[in-house]
Each structure stands twice: as C-alpha cells, then as structure tokens.
Amino acid sequence: MGRNVPPAMPVGTDYSNWQYSLSLVINTKDVGVTEDVSNFPLLVRLTPENAAVFNTAKNNGEDIRFSKSDGSTPLPYQIEKWDNISQQATIWVKVDVIYGNNDEQAIIMYYGNSAASSESNDANVFGSIDYSGVWHLNDMDDASRPSGSDYDGTNNGTAYIQGIIGDGVKFEGADWIDISTAAFSGVSSQITMEFWSYGGTGMPKDSRLVWSRDSYGNRTLNVVLPWSDESVTFDAGNSGCYFNRIENLATASEYKGTWGHWVFTKDGSTGAMRIYYNGALWFSEESGNTYQLHIQNGFRIGADNCGSLNWEGRLDEFRVSKTMRSAAWVKLSYESQKQIQALVEFGFQCQTPHDCVRATGPEYPPFVNPCDSMRVDDKIFLWPKNINFGETQVPSFNNGHFIQLYNDDKFYPGTVSLPNLPKEPSFNIKIPIPESPGGFAHYLFDNDGVEFKTPFAWDTTYFRRYRFDYNGFTLNNSETPERFFRFSDHMLQIHDTINDAYISLNPIEDEIRIQYGPNSTLVTSSHIRSNTVYTQELWVKEGALPDFVFEKGYDLKSLYEIEAYITKNKHLPGIPSQGETEEKGLSVGNMQSKLLEKIEEMTLHMINMQKRVDELEKELKE
After folding, report:
1. Per-residue pLDDT tens for 377-401?
2. 299 Cβ contact list (under 8 Å, min separation 6)
3. Measured between alpha carbons, how far is 414 from 376 in angstroms, rounded to an integer?
4. CA nearest to 372, candidates 344, 401, 351, 399
C-alpha cells in the first residue's frame, strides 16, 4: 500500500465556536534543552488533573484542536489514546519550532464544540519529518501500527500491555514483530532508531532486539540490549560480511526492571555512531564507521531471522528515522515522552477569545490574549513584561478605556503601557469582573499611560482590594487585611500575619518556603511530589496498626511456610515485590503498618522459640 497523503491544514482558523481554551507552556529552559528543534512531535498528556477538559470535550476528543500562540495558526495533531472513563489521553502535536532555553513559548488547546468532528491525523504529524515509520505499538490486531505510512507490523505472538506512553507490547521469549523492508527504502547513510524498553527478569541473555540483513543475507542492522555479558551492541551498515559496530557494558538498572529511552544513531558520511539513554549520550564513536545500510532482507523486532535469540521484555513507541537526529532532538524526545515530565506546563482554563486584544512587547513576538475576559481570582496578576497596546486595540468604554490583559501563565513584574491615547490629565482603565455583573476594578494612570498612580482599587460587590506599587501587586480582603497575597520580584507570597504564617514560592531561587504558626495545618487533596523531603517529624494517618496479630486464633505461618513462600516469590508474604514498588511506588503509611505486622509476627516466633528453648533446657537438667 502507498503512503498516506497528509491533507492540507487550514490557515487562519477561527476558534470562536470552541467554548474553552487552555494554554500549554513549553518550558525547555528547566529541562536543559538549549537548542531550537524544528518540526517536532510534542507529546501532550492529559490526566485526571485535566478533568475540566474531559468533562467538556466530546467523548473521544473529536473537538480537540491546537494552535500556535497567535490563536489562529492550527497545529497538526494525532490522538493516540483517549479514555474518558479513566481521564487519560496521549496526544502528539507537531510544533514547527520549539525554542531552546525558553520558558515562555506557548501553544493553545481548544475544546468544547459539540459540532466539531475529529481532525486527528497521524500523517500530518509524522509523515513529513524524515520518519521511515513510527509504531505506537497500541493495536492488538496489528501489534505495530506506523503513523504517516502504511507499513503495519506483523505480530508473531507478542501480547498487548500497558506501555509508558499509551499501549505497548510484551515479548515473552518466543515471539517477535516483522516489518516490511519497504518502510526503510530511504535509509542508507543515516539512521535513528528510538524506543522505550523494559527488560524482563530473564535478561541479560543472548538475544537480539532488532535484526536486519542485506539482500545477500549479511548483517546490516543489529541491536542487542544486552547480550549475556551485559554488553549493549549497535551494528549499523555493512560491506559484504563486514559491518560497523559500537558496544558498551550496561548496568542492570539500565536494561531491566524499569522503563528506559534508548536511541541509536549513525551518520555514514562522518562515520559517527552514538547511543543515547534517557536523553543523554551514553556511548559513541565519532569516526571510522562509514558503511552504508542495506535493509533489504527482513526487519525483525525481538528475535533474529530464524526466530531464535529472542529478547524478553516490554516495548513502546518504536521509531526509525532516515536521518541522524541531533542531541537536542533526542533530549527533547525523552523529556516530552517520560511519565513525569516538566516540559509541558498547563495554564488556566479560559473562555475562548472572540474580540481579544492583541499586544506586542520588546521581548515578545505578536501574541493574543487566550481568554475572553480576565478572572480576577486567577488571572489578573499574570502579565508579560511591559505590554504595549496600540490605540486601535483599546476601544472606548463608558468615557474610559476598556482593556483585557494578556496572560501567558507566568508572572513578571513590569508596567503596562498605553501609547497614543488622548492626553488627559488622567484616565481610568477598567477590567471586567465576571462574577460581579456590571462591576469593574479601576486603575488610574498618568497622562503617559505608564505607571499606576492610585495605591489600590476596590470592587465593593465582592470586597476585593488590589494594591499596586512599583515593587509588585497585593491582593487581600478588606474585612481581613491581615491575610493577603503578594506578588513581587518573581515571587509569590501568601501571608497570614494573625498566625505568623506564610507560603513563599520563588522560582528564581528554586525554592518553596512554608511557615506555620503553632495552630496551623497544611491540608492537600492531591499529590505532593518531591525527589527529597526533609522534616523533623512525619505523621501519616493511614489505616490501623496490626494489633490483630496478637488476637487469639491469628493464623501465624510457620517458618517453613514462610521459607517456601520466599523461595517461590523472592519477597515476604504481604509485602510488595521490588518490581511492584519500582513501577507504582509504595505507600509510606501502609508499608509501616506491614513492617510492624512482620515485626509482631517475628516477636511471636521468638516467644515460641524461647518457650522451646526453656523446654529443652528443662529436659537436659532432668
């Protein structure tokens, strides 16, 4: 079958029929991607934290759309997975340029249009960016399905399982996947292979993960991950029976028991061959490997051409490119696809724009407010630096000037400039408050429209107070002025002077500080994630202590029964295995309870042993 022809994407799309939009910031600065990357398939993961999207979008995400930050240039996308029940989705979005060392670039996702039909299309995303094939491995009937081509894989026994991105496949030591060599007709001097792997418990062993030969049956492509001696091998290109090879020893934590992102690249014109692991260069030779690739006689994943030397483990998102991808591309791929990622940051849900105010600034290209109106509670303090509004962009309203401030989901101290306005002694800028019909917050500017002159503004309906000065922005309630929000110098502070408590978020210093009075309590209904937690005292309220062990009639397993269980399962009864904790983590409270249960059982065994010792000593004395 022939290659799919990508349909033309509409230019200057009108999204006014979509109810909601969500800004997504692509933060390459924090993940260490320093170079620009063009035509990149960005992974957008939706989780229960995005419940508003699932509750508003159509059941299968048919109305999902993406655009550049201008609000009108559409971005191609493919929905790999959409599960409305579990509220999980994986979506690939093709972005023309992702800027390196940048934390301000944003795209917009739209949803909430019951009349819209799906525009999800794999060819639009992957079909024109030098891929020979992209196999998401998410189809049970065709264990591998390429995006942007018609070269489906032939499944020979692999099983459908949960992958790291969507669904994947499991190799159990006697199965493999075949792909037509026609998919690789453009591969000769350069190649990039990338995939996620999770080696099985039987690794390492003599096995092949990828195997291909030329028309004479000579090896031209081979990936071993790893051989029984723990060596990871990459063979690419051949001249007759001679082939180019690089290899390096791996550790068990790199090839089994956890998901790892492996990338193998070659450029025959320079002789460079490289292996990357989890976004970083793992091993390379930069010259001397100039043989061309001849993928002509089979392309097999999981075994050699005879169906032997079978690999064991799980695989997801297998890709082959007919070019040598850059280190920045590899790093961006890893940061985009890993399970817990910091690359894509979600903003606030907004009403889709209709007559949005456009603005330009010295540090920004032209952009547009993604919201129809500003919500005072979550939007008004999020401004780019030094926004400038043109005269035609600020319509007159009630003898004043009505504007909508742009929000890029980041706070920057700065000023709001309004040039070319009538040279009045002063004028008011009014921002609507949706929760208060007819209510406005008023801000007084001088005749140059550069600085705030009044120290505060009132919304009497909701008793909100907003105080502006040269150092930042303060929000509090007039009835309890001791409690307030403060935004200044790239820092968010929440103060409660009554209880001597505050929370301070400072991204510049990369720290969050929390101080509480003696009667304060921190409550959260969601997850707290951190690499390291330091505390003087930790209280976990989860379940009851296992006092039932000491109840009469408790089924205390004999040590021989426990030995048999350990021999078979390699862990204690009732305690999760190493594989379970590596994949899912563990509950501290539950684990403490389980460990105490084991200690109590051990205490009973020791008591029984002591009684037996006493009996033996008594017998010896007699």
Report:
1. 222 222 333 333 333 333 332 223 3
2. 178, 179, 180, 181, 183, 184, 210, 211, 212, 221
3. 18
4. 351
Give the pLDDT of residue 489: 52
Least confident of 76-80, 132-136, 518-522: 518-522
Region class of 598: left (phi > 0), else alpha (psi between -120 and 50), else beta: alpha
CA distance 280 to 212: 26
- Assign 213 to helix, strand or coil: strand
pLDDT by residue (tens digit) across 561-602? 888 888 888 888 888 888 888 777 777 778 888 888 888 889
- Do 378 and 348 form a contact (C-beta atoms < 8 A)? yes
* Region for residue 148 given its phi and psi (left: phi exceeds 0; alpha: psi -120 to 50; beta: otherwise): left
Provide CB contacts within 8 A for 52, sequence distance 6+.
20, 349
CB 91 within 8 A of CB 79: yes
Q: Which fold has domain 131-322?
A: Jelly Rolls (2.60.120)
Helix then strand then coil, in percent of the chain rounded to 5, is: 15, 35, 50
Strand partners, 467: 456, 474
Say if CB 24 and CB 362 are below 8 A apart.
no
| Residue scoring higher pLDDT (478 or 236) | 236
Q: Which amino acid is at 585?
A: G
Strands 37-46 and 88-98 come out as antiparallel
Query: Considering just the CA atoms, what is the radius of gyration of the chain in Å?
Result: 31
Contact predicate 291/243, CB 8 Å: yes
CA 476, CA 481: separation in Å to the nearest integer? 6
Q: Domain limits of the chain?
A: 10-122+328-352, 131-322, 353-489, 551-621
Are residues 388 and 417 in contact, defined by beta-carbon separation less than 8 angstroms? yes
DSSP 274-305: EEEETTEEEEEE-SS--PPP---EEEEESS-T
Among residues 183, 123, 125, the alpha carbon closest in space to that of 148 is found at 123
Whole-angstrom distance, CA of residue 205 vs CA of residue 339: 28
Cα angle value 52/57/62 (rounded, 5°): 150
Residues in the chain: 622
Sign of the C-alpha dihedral, residues 533, 539, 540, 545? positive
